[in-house]
Write a structure and sequence with these properties.
Layout lengths: L16 H13 L5 E3 H9 L5 H13 L3 E6 L2 E6 L1 H16 L9 E6 L6 H14 L2 E4 L2 E5 L3 H10 L6 E6 L7 H8 L2 H23 L5 H15 L2 H4 L14 H27 L1
Antiparallel strand pairs: 1-3, 2-3, 4-6, 4-7, 5-6
Helix pairs in contact: 1-9, 5-6, 8-11, 9-11
């Protein structure tokens, strides 16, 4: 299931250096041609309480994953996004910032797949990718998602070389059973609801503090990067199910509204601080 194995953090805004760096590149690196100087990145991460050795270690791991590459610009050493890194950030933009929500009448996207036994790694990769896209598991080799994910699903599976193992169908319910009763079996909504509540508990005091007008641009940067880093994984655990099929006390809408308010208040001063540090 999409949320299986994901535990709510005691502090939902606490994050390791690597996801913080990905957030910084997503927010500010692309405006600079995908490149940031190592000196500027270290200064930005210092504002998040991360020391230089931890930054360099995280960059090394991001290089190993093919997201960053060493590059010089204007005589300065730094790291730029690879094509893969650019693609991953672009993929995430719509889900993270726009959060499309399905309607029941839009129908469903069905993924049916079969991977040979001697290619278990590919089977695992396919399942992981479908879960990342927002699919829920109906049965062995049969996964389901709202139909609005069709275009992104085709693109992602093709770019990952997984399209040869899966067939996609669009469908509507014909008869028998209540979809609303099956949703909780196909997706782990209880776990996702807990993650949303953890985000609300951690982010609401941030908004309250800024509503009281406390903080400079450096604090705005630190708060915004932490909040966005905590937020950006949630839309990939949430498939954007129709509201009519969700529990009446669903916390996802409240969490999205909270993130939107923090973004509206902090994005501009945070960006000013990042430009001041990185030029």
């Amino acid at each position: 299931m999409t949320g299986a194995g994901v535990e709510p953090s005691a502090d939902a805004l606490a994050a390791q250096p690597r996801p913080l760096i990905v957030t910084i590149y997503g927010l500010y690196g692309r405006d600079a041609g995908g490149w940031l100087s190592i000196a500027g990145l270290i200064r930005l991460m210092a504002g998040l309480g991360v020391d230089e050795p931890a930054v360099r270690s995280a960059i090394s791991r991001l290089k190993q994953r093919g997201l960053l590459e060493a590059r010089r610009a204007g005589g300065a050493a730094g790291y730029g996004l690879t094509g893969r890194g650019q693609a991953i950030l672009t993929e995430g933009d719509m889900r993270i910032f726009e959060r499309p929500r399905a309607r029941i009448e839009d129908g469903w996207l069905i993924a049916v797949f079969s991977v040979p036994e001697d290619q278990r790694a590919r089977r695992h990769a396919l399942r992981s990718r479908l879960a990342w896209l927002g699919f829920g598991s109906v049965a062995a080799g049969v996964w389901i998602a709202p139909a609005h994910l069709a275009t992104q699903t085709r693109s992602v599976l093709a770019s990952d070389g997984l399209d040869g193992y899966v067939t996609l169908f669009t469908a509507g319910q014909l008869a028998f059973g209540e979809i609303g009763q099956e949703i909780g079996r196909w997706w782990d909504l209880d776990r996702l609801g807990q993650l949303y509540q953890a985000f609300i508990d951690a982010a609401d005091p941030v908004l309250t503090r800024w509503q009281d007008g406390r903080g400079d641009s450096g604090q705005a940067f630190a708060d915004y990067v932490r909040v966005l880093t905590a937020w950006r994984r949630l839309p990939f655990l949430d498939p954007g199910l129709p509201p009519d099929l969700l529990p009446a006390d669903w916390r996802g809408a409240m969490a999205a509204e909270l993130f939107g308010q923090i973004r509206a208040r902090l994005a501009a001063p945070a960006g000013e601080y990042a430009r001041e540090i990185c030029g």
